[in-house]
Amino acid sequence: MRFLSIALIISILMWPACIQPVPPSAPGTPTEPLPQTQPATEPQSPPAAATHPNPGPSSDNRTKLIYGMKGVGIRLPQSDFAEMKAAGIDVLATEWGMEQDINEVKAFLDQAQAAGLKVIMDGGFSYTAWGFTDDDWDKLPRGKHPVWQKDRVQSWVKALKYHPAIYAWDICNEFGENLPSGADIKGSDWPKGMITANQIKQARADVLEADSTRPIQVRMYEWDIGKMPRQVKSVLEDKTADIISLNLYSNYMENGKLQWPDIIEEGGPYFVSSIKKIAPETRIWLSIAVFEYHDQFQRPTPATLSRDLKYAKQIPQLDAISFFDWGPDNKWDPMSDWYLPKTGADLWAVIKVNL
Hints:
- The protein is of the alpha/beta class.
- It has 8 helices and 10 strands.
- It starts with 65 loop residues before the first strand and ends with a helix.
């Protein structure tokens, strides 16, 4: 399934009101205001590594959560960028990546930069970064597993790293559940085809070799309370991620029934505290559902979104909250007409009131 290939999922972070790139080796809290500039022209040398001091783990004395928007389409009018920024969104994240035309990607980054927004970019979460092709989605060869494509990824990173709108590199989504070998893909032998913790560690090293000035993000799913999966623990112990994105979607359904509508209230504090205990300097984004998808993800209501946002804001040590997703260009789901500011206008109104 080309969507996010869901295992129920999770995403987060707290920064101050404005954001600048932070060096992966010292994921401190940036303090300078986000630049309000016109479309960027690429400098001739990479941006200097940030020199912010490392303040250590986030505390409960925070003054402001940072807010992000995930799943932002590559073909948007400039008014969409301006609308998100005006509402209080500061960081965007994409579901498309290195399969896109590089010039179109740079145009997207220019639009973000013009609106004063930062972008978490694909640094290895997309399928071509792991050796898959378009054909694999519908006809996966038996036994085909993820194989890291160092040269391809580094070429992509080097082509974009000079752009000042890039905030971080996203190297893995849910250990590969979004890939053509994910759990919901016909012919997959999941979980044997999962991306391993060692592979993610290698991906981090290779991306940092190409661009050492920005932090590394890994997206993760939820797990049973009291039982952290081995691969999750390994990623945290190895300090593979500077940012952990937790996808906690309360609208996930099986057989027509919501599976965990209170996941943020009941599980959010546990997942965040569990991560912080092992990797206290890792910053955590929590991603809230603002989308629908056939019979697998129910359309949130203003009441359920308000509930999720209320409890997310109360989670100790949470660094940021993001919303999934915006649209309208959903290559992974061409059947969907979801487009947050239009089909989800009532939900967008809730977000704008609460940021």
